[in-house]
Amino acid sequence: MAPSEDVAVVDEELIQQALHEGQDGGAPLSVMVSEAASLRLSFKTIKSIANLSGFEKLTTLCLDNNVIDKIANIGHLVNLKWLDLSFNNISVIEGLENLTQLMDISLYNNKISEIQGLDACKDLQCLSIGNNDVKSLDICHYLRKFKKLHLVNLEGNPVCDETEYKMQLLAFLPSIKYMDYALIQPSDVANAREQYQDELQEAEENEAVEAEKAKRDAAAAELTATLEKANLSVIQTIFDDFFKEDSEHHKLQHLPTINEHVDTLRNSIDQLSEGLKITGLQLQESKDLEITKFEDALNKLRGQAAATSVKLIEDFNMEKKRVLNTIEMDGAPPQNATPLLAKLDALYDKLMDLEMQQVQQFEELQDQFYEVYGNLKAQCGDLTTAYFKNLQEAEENYYSNVTGLANELLEKAGKEDLPEGLPEEAKNLLVDRDALLASISASHDVHVTKGFNAESQMEEKEKNRFKEIIDNYTEDSSKRNRSRIMEMFQFVKASKEEIENILEEDAVEEDEYDDL
Question: Rounded distance, CA 144 to CA 207, Å?
């Protein structure tokens, strides 16, 4: 595209023109945008990608043969499967982090020097990136992660001049079938993999290690999320929190055998935390079950109320239709519609009674839920209290043991009977008894404070979560109640206007007749 040409902006007119191509449609633009599966904006001298909001269902996007220099503003097109950005001025592959369904991308004839930014596109099958500036054979290792990739076009890049280019690509890409416009022969793949069998074995071993690490990381993330949901995150950090900001321990750690007491404390905390986790997760399951039971009962209640309301409205509408048909089709007197007004008022009263009854039943259900869930919350509180009480006892034992160790060493120091090879830092600690014991006491205070703060945070979080659950249900019920009353009011208003219009027309006709 000649640089002197005027660049275009992706605006409403351009989008409308593109969507109308090949269609007879007269649908509103907003409808066409929301329903569009394909959008072609090729050869439009577009400089930057913009104004593509609303294309939720888009699966194909063609922006080839423009002057685009940056991939941007397409992250919301999460259903995109086919993307053509060939013949542009793009230098970096970016902005594709959310396009997890992308299967085919063309970046042919751009200014790209490195293949990157495709990590989220796990389903990638076709990559056309010929006529760019890719130089390194490291692309083989990067592209290997795309297990479904069977078509690659790199023709026209400097890397193609590398002696080992073809053989490495064939060896490292597990699903390769087409390469640089040519069908790959299985025998060529076999020869390439044999030639690079040592490198492939190393790559496979590294992949196995990475896969195992990813599996562990995923399990750890799942556990963290589970513990967070159950308000048990403290067990993952409490021991480290004890010592993380304990500046005194950095001095005390030089005392011989103190690490044995640290390990004893760690084991005690681990055992306590495991017990808290088991019981706490069981209580969380009970909470989840109560929420499910409450929501099922609530949905059943609302469903029954809605069905009754619909039946009442349908019966009235049938009666109204019957009466109005006799007036319009059979010539019955319009006054026959008058009783409908009384029936409409009666219907409104019944609907309001149903709604108020439903609100009352909701409150009764909520009270029952509040009581049961509140008991579970109380059990969690008791569990937390017991945990931190035992935690404090474990810390007191640690404090007592370290104090005993210090006194023993101070006594030996007084007798000049200290162990040989004692670190200089430890000897310095034993020079001043009061300073050493004060340091141990300060370390103990840090641990006690950490435990107290952690307990307070757990209790506050449990209280806030319970309040949030109740508040959400109450707010949802209030919104629904307001919406239902408004719907009933609008229905009654519209029905009354329809009936009164017929009666008014009849009154006008009678007045005109009397004037004759």
Answer: 10
| Helix and strand counts by DSSP (H, E) for the chain | 12, 8
Categorize the per-residue pLDDT at 503 as very low, low, confident or very high, splitting at 50, 70 and 90.
Answer: confident
Longest CA span, the chain: 134
Give the model's pLDDT for residue 245: 87
CA distance 142 to 72: 22
The contacts of residue 86 (CB under 8 Å, 6+ apart) are: 64, 65, 106, 107, 108, 109, 110, 128
Residues 6+ away with beta carbon under 8 Å from 73:
48, 49, 50, 52, 95
Q: Hey, which residues does 128 pair with through a beta bridge?
A: 106, 153
State yes or no: pLDDT of 506 exceeds 70. no
Task: Please determine, for residue 510, whether its predicted confidence score (pLDDT) is greater than 90.
Answer: no
DSSP 8-state class, residue 230: T
Q: CA 417: distance to chain centroid?
A: 63
Residue 248 has pLDDT above 90, yes or no: yes
Question: At which residue do the structure tokens 């200290």 appear?
Answer: 418
Rounded Cα distance between 169 and 189, Å, is 9
Domains defined along the chain, listed by start? 12-208 (3.80.10.10), 251-509 (no CATH)
Sign of CA dihedral 385, 391, 397, 399: negative
pLDDT tens figures, 151-199: 999 999 999 999 999 999 999 999 999 999 999 999 999 999 999 999 9
259 has pLDDT over 70: yes
pTM across the whole model: 0.75
SS (H, E, C) 183-202: ECCHHHHHHHHHHCHHHHHH
Question: Which DSSP state fits 78?
Answer: T
Banded pLDDT at 23 (limits 50, 70, 90) = low
**Residue 94 three-state SS:** coil
pLDDT at residue 13, as a whole number: 86
pLDDT for position 419: 81
Closest CA to 124 of 147, 98, 141: 147
Instruction: Return all residues near 324 (Cβ < 8 A) that are at least 6 apart.
Output: 337, 498, 502
Identify which of 454, 408, 455 has the alpha carbon closest to the alpha carbon of residue 430: 408
Distance CA 406, CA 255 (A): 8
